[in-house]
Design goal:
Order of helices and strands: HHEEHEEEHHHEHEEHEEHHEE
CATH superfamily of the largest domain: PAS domain
CATH class of the largest domain: Alpha Beta
Bound molecules: adenosine-5'-diphosphate
Number of domains: 3
Distance between the termini: 54 Å
Largest sheet: 5 strands, antiparallel
Shape: rod-shaped
CATH topology of the largest domain: Beta-Lactamase
Mean pLDDT: 87
Strand order of the largest sheet: 2-1-5-4-3
Number of strands: 12
Low-confidence stretches: none
Radius of gyration: 53 Å
Strand content: 15-25%
CATH architecture of the largest domain: 2-Layer Sandwich
Number of helices: 10
Length: 461
């Protein structure tokens, strides 16, 4: 059913209520009929008893006085009750006219002392009690009938009220149900209205949390928590875009200004060469930065694009060290590598692991003054591979250790200012280790050096 919740609730309410009312009326009807039958039976039984007493009193005085007494009694009964009495031989001593007109003979009583049946006498319905009365050795057969009409009328009236009142009641109750469901859905409407007003411009807005500790409160709290997460991600994206554009603007401005100044007037070839090599250097830096930005943007999509294959970390580290040695050569730094004799297998993406190692080696080289050392060590401890990249560089203040793995964060900006970098390397390193199910941490002593630890799960295949 594609009906709105409110209509669905009302239909359901209507159906349940209708069925309940019908069942209730049916039970009432049953009870009413049962109680009428009992009352009518009781009434005719009482009449039977009265006749019994009368017969006991008048039987000794002979048949004549029985007849007279019965006639008098019959005329005294104001509520239309009838009676007929026969003696042992089946001869009538008295019959109310309706009995006379209706049935000529009494139905057999069998061996029961009293029995009830319903019959039509002279167009009306009667409940008849049949009884055997024995007095002074003489047996009489007695019929005492009570008209059922007044009771039937009461039952009819009751049924009519049911028929008329039931639909009206169900309708009224359904209308009430419609109104009630509207009332209880009102908070949901308020949530919808507020939610519709929340957009990128006012993500800090929250839904009003209702007082009662119910499902709606849980819903609003869940939506609010979701909004908080969306806001945080949005904030991150904003920050990322702002930082990225800031970091890109500077090198582009350098390239542009260098070219403009060089072209302003004719210059000797030497000056052009200088300008071009500055432009080239800055472009190389910029393309590195762009590469990092793209990796970071891609990292938000998860591990997609990584090809996880069995990889010997020892061999990888040897390759990385060779490249790192080229970087270190200019600064007269030594790079050493210690690996176990047996291969250390991990399931990893070769390009990503190479990148990770180069980021760490590049940092070690960048932040270590000339003449320093960079030591790389690989070891395996049960199911964990451990890579340590240690340098004798400037170190990182303890307070900065917590955030150097975040995007665009650089420790102690004043000190790193003259060292190029955008603060993306370690964020990429952390993403790569996480995608391989590993961890990366840093330890450092200012002025003495830093160690970066990477733990990766060893592959069993
Ligand atoms: P970048 O080097 O481009 O600034 P990274 O994310 O690689 O960005 O590093 C973040 C910051 O961590 C650096 O700016 C630097 O302050 C600090 N850092 C990283 N590696 C080292 C290191 N080996 N020695 C000292 N500081 C480091």
């Amino acid at each position: 059913m594609n009906l709105p919740i409110r209509a669905r609730l009302t239909v359901l309410y209507f159906a349940v209520l209708g069925l309940t009312f019908v069942a209730f009326c049916w039970i009432c009807d049953l009870g009413f009929r049962h109680s009428i039958e009992t009352t009518v039976n009781e009434s005719s039984r009482t009449n039977l008893e009265t006749i019994g007493r009368l017969l006991a009193n008048t039987a000794p005085q002979g048949e004549g006085s029985i007849r007279t007494e019965l006639r008098d009694l019959s005329s005294l009964w104001a509520n239309g009750a009838l009676l007929e009495v026969a003696d042992e031989k089946g001869e009538w001593l008295f019959r109310s006219p309706q009995f006379l007109r209706a049935s000529p003979s009494l139905p057999p009583l069998a061996d029961k002392n009293i029995a009830f049946f319903t019959t039509n006498l002279d167009l009306s319905q009667y409940r008849v009690a049949l009884g055997l009365v024995e007095t002074a050795g003489v047996r009489f057969q007695v019929h005492a009938a009570v008209p059922t009409e007044p009771f039937d009328q009461a039952l009819d009236r009751f049924r009519m009220i049911e028929k008329e009142a039931l639909p009206v009641l169900v309708l009224l109750a359904s209308l009430l149900g419609y109104w009630l469901s509207g009332e209880s859905l009102e908070p949901v409407n308020r949530i919808i209205q507020t939610a519709q007003q929340i957009g990128a411009q006012n993500l800090s807005r929250r839904l009003e949390v209702p007082e009662p500790r119910d499902e709606l409160r849980r819903l609003t709290e869940t939506l609010n928590a979701m909004l908080a997460r969306i806001e945080a991600s949005f904030q991150k994206i904003r920050q990322f875009t702002a930082d990225a554009s800031h970091d890109l603007r500077t090198p582009v401005a350098v390239i542009r200004t260098t070219a403009e100044i060089a072209l302003r007037r004719p210059r000797p070839a030497e000056e052009y060469r200088d300008a071009l090599s500055r432009i080239l250097e800055t472009s190389v830096e910029t393309s590195g930065l762009l590469e990092n930005l793209l990796t970071i943007a891609r990292s938000d999509a998860g591990a997609a694009g990584l090809k996880m294959l069995p990889l010997d970390l020892s061999a990888q580290l040897h390759k990385a060290r060779e490249q790192g040695a080229v970087l270190a050569a200019d600064k007269a730094l030594s790079i050493t590598l210690r690996t176990p004799e047996t291969p250390v297998w991990v399931r990893a993406d070769e390009i990503a692991i190479h990148r990770l190692m180069l980021i760490l080696i590049d940092n070690a080289v960048k932040y270590t003054p000339p003449g320093g050392r960079c030591e790389i060590a690989l070891s395996q401890n049960q199911d964990q591979a451990h890579i340590a990249v240690k340098d004798t560089g400037i170190g990182i203040p303890e307070s900065d250790l917590d955030f150097i793995f975040e995007r665009f964060r650089r420790a102690d900006r004043a000190r790193s200012r003259e060292i190029p970098g955008a603060g993306l390397g370690l964020a990429i390193a952390r993403w790569i280790t996480q995608m391989h199910g590993g961890t990366i941490t840093a330890e450092s002593t200012l002025g003495t050096g830093s160690v970066f630890h990477i733990h990766l799960p060893v592959s069993t295949v």
